[in-house]
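ok so i was messing around last nite and threw this chain in just to see what happens. nothing serious, just curious
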Amino acid sequence: MTVTDRCAGCGACLLTCPTHAIRPDGGSLYVLAELCTGCLECIDVCPVDAIDETTSSHGGAL
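result:
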């Protein structure tokens, strides 16, 4: 999963992720690709549609 610049930093995805693949890093969030199962719950809960269903070997900064 990757996130566009529309991310408002609300943390809804962080709280929703069942595998805790989304982690805080300073003032932003990032996805641990190795923990992400692709369940899409983060996409469903994002109020600003900031998360894209794409993959990255290093995860995506939120």
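not much to say yet. The helical segments are 12-16, 41-45.
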